[in-house]
Amino acid sequence: MDISKECILAAQDLIKKAGLKKGDIVVIGCSTSEVLGSKWGTNSSPETAKVLFESLYGVFKENGIYIAAQCCEHLNRAIIVEKDAVPFAEIVNVVPVPKAGGSFATEAYAHFENPVAVEEIKADAGMDIGATLIGMHLKKVAVPVRLEVRTIGEAPVTAARTRPKFIGGSRANYDEKLIG
After folding, report:
1. What is the pLDDT of residue 176?
2. pLDDT of 165 higher than 70
């Protein structure tokens, strides 16, 4: 399977299993180095980021869900996001580049309609491609989502949601099968 198809399937699966809705925010951490089979931070690839971003963005945007792209540690894991998603957030003055921010965040900044960088966010769900550690940008309490797609390229993929899924709106009717 190619990385574009893997991204599309992973995004669709996350939307379904996390119960994401229009206006929700998904934080995505992505190491293009890991996708290509290298150690993170050693083989940043704008070309790979373009394929990953276009595939993920297409699915999430079609569903009215915002992507929040996590930068690398060189930008203190800042977040690149559409301004409409965070209208009251404090904006920081950085622009990612492949070696300082990461290729995926750089691609997001280049293609969002009105991109801004923020220091932090509290996302409704997240997808971590390549063990980049996105947990700091998720709302409390994060619950794993088991995606059908376990890797994108060579990178391991993990996901989480932050909103509990209850049957009938009651905690007493919590259904373990819905964890996914």
Report:
1. 53
2. no
Mean pLDDT of 98-103: 90
CATH number corresponding to 3-179 = 3.40.50.10360
pLDDT of residue 1: 66
CA angle (89 as vertex; 85, 164 as ends), nearest 5:
55
Domain extents in the chain:
3-179
Determine whether 151 is exposed, middle or buried from the number of CB atoms within 10 Å of its CB (0-12, 13-18, 19+): middle
Interacting residues of 168 by C-beta distance below 8 A, sequence separation 6+: none
Alpha-carbon distance 28 to 6, whole Å?
15
